[in-house]
Amino acid sequence: MPTTSVTTRGRVSTIRDGPMAKTLFILNDPPYGTERSYNALRLAGALSKREGEQVKVFLIGDAASCAKGQQKVPPGYYNLEVMLRSVASHGGDIGTCGTCMDARGMTDAELCDAAHRSSLDQLTEWTQWADRVLVF
Question: What is the pTM (predicted TM-score) of this model?
Answer without folding.
Answer: 0.86
